[in-house]
Amino acid sequence: MELDLLPLGLPSDNERPFVIAGPCSAETEEQVMTTAHLLAKKGCHMFRAGIWKPRTKPGGFEGNGEMALPWMAQVKKETGMLTATEVATPEHVELALKYGIDILWVGARTSANPFAVQALADALKGVDVPVLVKNPVNPDLELWIGALLRINGAGVKRLGAIHRGFSSFDKKIYRNLPMWQIPIELRRRIPNLPMVNDPSHIGGRRDLIAPLCQQAMDLGMDGLIVESHCDPDNAWSDATQQVTPDVLDFILDRIIIRDQMQTTENISALRKQIDEIDDALIDLLSKRMRISREIGQYKKEHGMTILQTSRYSEILDKRGAQGSLLGIDPECIKNIFEHIHEESVNQQIEVMNR
Ligand code: PEP
Ligand code: MN
């Protein structure tokens, strides 16, 4: 995948990931300045705050708009921190730049809409500002890449991606499911694209911030964007997921950054074993398919149907239980066997219709 990229050039402490911290929304001048000063005292270099807030339902606080932009300029002047905000329309881009916002991000609802992203890209032509593109709300990697291509196509080279999780009807513990395989695949396809993790919108809960930050670092992400508020319980938006600057500092202090080069050397012997096991797995699967085809031949000669439901349920239950005894999630085993069974059925269909 070809993107024309330059380093983001964002400040961070030595080898550590960079962190953009600040409230979900810029609520009042006092809340913005108090939070910013507390964060700056903890050594933060970049301040986030939402000026225009996309809300799921009408009636919530939708941001102060232009009125809040001078507060951001004041943050920069008084603390030296760079400022970042979300832009969703060309008008937002124009205003954010007019007030000297340093970093722009495209929100998850916007990156899901190619018309909106293209309008943003057109507004960004000829502007040299770092832009971070959040994943779309739906788990669609192509759409995320499409948004990155549109913004890059406008000449924005200081470009990065923010992983903020994917919305789903079935939330379980997360507000937005992390589906780590999607950012991992993005990294595989565009290795030089900086990746930022947003544990606040993935977790939706304060107690999930620390473990999500650690997971993101373990996957080699380059930075974090975390919601932090001087008085989280009374935040006007996303109260349950915001942490005080003190708590954020406590969390960041405890993140373990693992050395990638070191691990590569240490685990190469283990990886070799994994490769051998994968070879054996594929070999076994091909043997299993050969037997399936023989069964298909037998069923054909005896006028039997391909799908024998009771046998299928028996396999799923038996193997699921076996997996759980060996410390593997029975659901995972069932999923694997569903795929294997599907391929067996396809192979038998081919034998029967030959
Ligand atoms: C936010 O960062 O406050 C925000 C609205 O995020 P998202 O676009 O990920 O929902
Ligand atoms: Mn938020």
Structure, explained:
By secondary structure, the protein is α/β, with parallel strands linked by helices. It folds into 2 domains: 18-253, Aldolase class I (TIM Barrel, Alpha-Beta Barrel); 265-352, Chorismate Mutase Domain, subunit A (Up-down Bundle), CATH 1.20.59. Helices cover 50% and strands 10% of the residues. It has helices at 29-41, 69-79, 90-98, 108-111, 114-124, 141-153, 181-189, 199-203, 209-218, 245-253, 260-301, 309-325, 330-352, and strands spanning 18-22, 46-48, 82-86, 103-106, 131-134, 159-163, 195-197, 223-227. It has an 8-stranded parallel beta barrel with strand order 1-2-3-4-5-6-7-8, surrounded by 5 helices. The longest helix has 42 residues, at 260-301. The structure holds phosphoenolpyruvate and manganese (II) ion. Manganese (II) ion (MN) binds next to loops.
